[in-house]
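Quick check before the chapter quiz. The format below is the same one you will see on the exam, so make sure you can read both the input and the output lines.
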Amino acid sequence: MKDLVDLAVGRARQAGASYADARAVVRREQELHTRNGAADALSDSSEQGVGVRVIADGAWGFAATAVTTPAEVEEAAQLAVEIARASARLISEPVALAPVEPARAEWASPFEIDPFEVPLKQKLAVLLEADRVMREVSGVRVAVGEITLVREEKWFASSEGAEIYQTRVQSGGMIQALAEGEGEVQRRSYPSSLEGQNGNRGWELIEGIDLVGNARQTAEEAAALLTADPCPAKVTTLILEGSQLALQVHESCGHPTELDRVFGTERSFAGTSFLTPEKRGELQYGSPIVNLYADATVPGALGTFGYDDEGVPAQRVDLVKEGMFVGYLSSRETAARLGITNRVPIIRMTNINLAPGDSSLEQMIRETDDGIYAATTKSWSIDDLRLNFQFATEIAWEIKNGQLGRMLRNTTYQGITPEFWNGCDAIAGPDEWVPWGVVNCGKGEPMQVMWVGHGVAPARFRNVRVGVGG
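Here is the expected output.
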């Protein structure tokens, strides 16, 4: 594969590219799904390919092939140059790239237990035992579980002299119980509804989330939701659990800070952005305790790597500092256009994190006279500027006089992004800070799915509208 990316870059330069880079990927993915006491799906698949990106006549061109022979790779490189020259007829100004020191490096994500060395029988046994425990609970009609394991190797080379080899091992899993009765269908997911918990770790991640040990509570909560009171409609204090807050960060900070959305060169699946350039350094995005940042160096997090797909080293970049909007997710091209030097990978999220505070979930509840504690994403909707949003959670509890009270079902909350984050008055500390993995971040047409991370601790927000019509 190293020879192929070198070949692609050389061929593109011979064809007239002023800049070229090539990326070869070999990926193995193993998925296990169970449903009501049986293996519902088992797969172990591999794929590979080479992509070539060039600048010719001042414009971008890209081509790729899944046939990794020298002839096919050379053809892809030639095609990328031809596409760039055709695109050059339509551009208003030539592409300029922010400078980067070309790296020659190797990087690998650390893990304790190679998940592909764990016997398939052992993996399946975990899911089937959790399934059995969930189905013992009265009212549970469907029990499902899944484990996903990935090994990815990536080779990168550029005409500037970069040569990088990286490997990542990723693991994730979840369980879910669906209960039916009283004219209701309710679900509970653990540890998250968004494909569970995922990270750049080995089998130790699956052992750590303890799917079997949490199966009974997951099922019991699903059954209890059938007769729980509906969420009242009102304006109140809202405390969000970690996995739900992770999606809030994803939708209302991650996507709007993607600089291609700001410039209007990408709109698919997430719209544009209200965070236009004149707001940088001027907009009070959140309260003074809100610090949001992109960091591709967080150990074990799903959005962590050594170098991005442009050969830029992993780094940390502030997006919101003490409540002030200060930065973007950028590529080398958009960074040059905006005149900034901080560059995060090609414009997809890495780990977009909310820095921990000095509170705790227990303290936040104790200090709340009247409010709601909501957990686990059920659904979400946000407008194409990332301003107006509505989220629904699987479960919530009423807070009265500093204590958790009755369980609530069908809980929703709504808001406007800067107003919502300016209402943040407490964030739990480092002991409760968890890097959640999101495996289904979609962008572009045809859609490209990205695995990203969000480190958060539970947080409290004042004056939030909850419930339908609230």
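If your answer matched, good. The CA atoms of residues 98 and 205 lie 38 Å apart.
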